[in-house]
Amino acid sequence: MVPSIPSLVTLAEVESARAVIEGVLRQTPLELSRALQSPAGGPAYLKCENLQRTGSFKIRGAYVRISRLTAAERARGVVAASAGNHAQGVALAASILGAKSRVFMPVSAPLPKLAATKAYGAEVELVGENLGVSLIAAQEYAERTGAVFIHPFDHRDLIAGQGTVGLEILEQCPSVRTILVGTGGGGLLSGIGAAVKGIAPDVAVVGVQAAGAAAFPPSLAAGHPVGLVSMNTMADGIAVPKPAQITYDNVTAYVDEIVSVGEESISRALLLCLERAKMVIEPAGAASVAGLLQYPGRFEPPVVAVLSGGNIDPILLMRVIQHGMIAAGRYLSLRVTVPDSPGSLARLLAAIADAGANVLDVEHSRVDSDLHLGEVQVDVRLETKGSSHQAEVVACLREREYGVVAQVR
User: Fold this and answer.
1) What confidence tens digit (pLDDT) does each residue in 343-397 have?
2) What CATH architecture is 11-56+156-326?
3) Sign of the C-alpha dihedral, residues 77, 80, 86, 91?
4) Which pTM value belongs to this model?
5) What is the longest distance spanned by two Cα atoms in the chain?
6) Which of 100, 219, 296, 337 has the fewest CB atoms within 10 Å, i.e. is most exposed?
7) How many other β-carbons are positioned within 10 Å of the β-carbon of residue 1?
8) Contacts of 318 (CB under 8 A, 6+ apart)
9) For the domain bounded by 329-408, which CATH number is listed?
């Protein structure tokens, strides 16, 4: 039984939030994923919040929060700090509700997110090298002007709005047994937990954090929110150094488990969604799928993985795709020694072709302290079909007595 704690968001609040967003925001689709059935051990579905207005779930909470401001508060405008999804959610929600919005973003904010935030109607100010500086600037602006500061997760209206995702999941997949949710500050996780535990308490709600920005495990161990000293993850949308007290309380009450996933799992998940589900998602949005890939068979099916957002910078997308392909065994870099004689390189490339690998680039050098007289060092980067194929390529070269002196993924 869920304890009675004043900070806990209730099912009634989530249902009330749903009435607020109905007709304004989308009920996003739930798609069956055959590619995830094997790691899930049964039916697996994707809740496609990347197809929500502004490209993420964030507008749900932002719209509920701003809609409940008084007329006088809306007249003073709203202000937020964000590098991406929250900025866009606040900007569009404010525009729909007739309020002016100002968003403080780091100077390093990706240009597509900056342009989208402006297009949704916000005045954007670039401040600081990181979000922490932008956050301080936004709070100072609120104190100076009277604008209402819209926090990304530290408010019960925001949590209730995000929880409408949980209501939709239960309606779209009544047989669901586990819901995986990418987690940063815990607003989406808290809201889904409140909705799900209020209707189907036996359904497991699991938060998935990037290992390089996992603030909930130490917080839960300490019994109160604990801040991280540093963070390092490509999933900037869930890189939050410390939960709020309200999200900590709700996660403690409603969430069954928190797991952490590595960067390779996130890259593989993003690539899988792109290739198999035809879904463009950002690294934070892929965290839930990464949980399935990193912990196959751990969660009771049917499983629903929430794709929380799809606002990825095209440059980052190219880098992450490449990283994901490396993690999936699709790229292989080898250093091979061959005789320094005419035709040696051609014979090496022929051997690689016989092994079924595609050569992407080649570099060779005669200057290395480890080389014997009459040897050449060749670095080749190959496109392969997976980890087992990589092992076959290396075995084929060694069978032909090539000295494979280094293998780099």
Assistant:
1) 888 998 999 999 999 999 988 776 665 666 677 888 888 999 888 898 899 889 8
2) 3-Layer(aba) Sandwich (3.40)
3) positive
4) 0.85
5) 83
6) 296
7) 5
8) none
9) 3.30.70.260
